[in-house]
Specification:
With 324 residues, the chain is an alpha/beta fold. It is built from twelve helices and twelve strands. Helix 2 packs parallel to helix 3, helix 4 packs across helix 12 and helix 9 packs across helix 10.
Length: 324
């Protein structure tokens, strides 16, 4: 899009709200953030966002008519028709407490607003300005406290009939596995999220009797993280390597099935756990190649995300371009 007008991206999280002003080509020009105030059923959140945008436009001596629009990514269930959100529990917006960000932010700033789920906007960000190389067919999977996903096919975000598309974290990888918060058993999230990896480590440590620093740490009751597991695996700790192998098998299986179903150009892996870098990717790829059929194996590639925490605001801003 060729225009001098700008975009605003808002990435609403349970602890922080990130903001950016970008050009229509997606170059970030200004950014700032503030704490999310979730008190009083999250009723301060939207007024805080409006106030923060208006304050910064004053600060930068800018006016509403210099902007094409505001795009926002939010946790919870997004109703695109209504521009509403419900069930964002980490914001204190429960199922019965519907919030209308599109209406309220548009009214409060005078700038047209667009809304999407946070995992989807991160996918859009990586597609537009990150590892997705602006390809029309990209799947994004984020390995963090949970496992999230976003699917872009033929240049369009796939949301499904009720917004439930791209729930990669809830692909069943072990029907007899751990209970998931969603009520199912054996979801990918239970074994490949940051907490899931620690759970796998604890289980494997119980039946492992060899020499291992990871085993000693767990036996001594130390708190360990997914990062500890990957750091130890990189220096050939035998138990840590067993954990990484098991987690990689589950990820390779799930992502192999996603690739066989959708055949995207790239599956981009992001989130906190992806900080383990190429080591993480190589181990997943080993199983991914085992579980994909020949045509897909040759055409779909796994890649590491490149935007880190910036994916959300950039992807949110891209909603404006999509909406115009």
């Amino acid at each position: 899009m060729t225009t001098n007008k700008k975009l605003i991206g808002v990435d609403l999280g349970g602890t922080t709200i990130k903001f950016s002003i970008l050009t229509a080509d997606g170059e970030v020009q200004q950014k700032w953030s503030q704490e999310t105030n979730v008190l009083s059923e999250g009723n301060f959140i939207i007024p805080d966002i409006i106030e923060s945008i208006n304050h910064h436009l004053d600060l930068y001596k800018m006016s509403a008519d210099e902007f094409i629009g505001i795009g926002m990514g939010t946790p919870g269930g997004v109703n695109r028709k209504e521009g509403s959100v419900s069930g964002a529990f980490n914001l204190n917006w429960n199922e019965n407490h519907k919030v209308f960000p599109v209406r309220d932010i548009t009214e409060g700033t005078g700038i047209k607003t667009y809304l999407e789920n946070d995992a989807n906007v991160a996918a859009l960000g990586e597609k537009w300005k990150g590892a997705g190389n602006n390809s029309d067919n990209v799947v994004f999977v984020t390995l963090g406290t949970g496992v999230g996903g976003g699917v872009i096919l033929n240049g369009k975000l796939v949301t499904g009939i009720a917004g439930g598309a791209g729930e990669i974290g809830h692909i069943t990888v072990d029907p007899k596995g751990y209970d998931c918060n969603c009520g199912k058993k054996g979801c990918l999230e239970t074994v490949a999220s940051a907490t899931g990896i620690v759970r796998v480590a604890r289980d494997l440590a119980e039946e492992y009797s060899g020499d291992s620093k990871l085993k000693s740490m767990l036996d001594d009751g130390e708190d360990i993280s997914a990062k500890d597991v990957y750091d130890l695996a990189k220096v050939d700790d035998v138990l840590a390597l067993k954990v990484v192998d098991k987690v990689s098998m589950y990820l390779g299986l799930a992502l192999g099935n996603v690739a066989n179903t959708l055949n995207p150009e790239f599956i981009v892996v992001g989130g906190g756990v992806s900080a383990a870098g190429d080591f993480l990717l190589e181990h997943i790829n080993e199983y991914f190649l085992k579980y994909t059929f020949p045509l897909v194996k040759e055409t779909t590639k796994l890649k590491l995300a490149t935007l880190g925490n910036g994916a959300g605001v950039i992807g949110a801003a891209s909603l404006v371009i999509e909406g115009e």
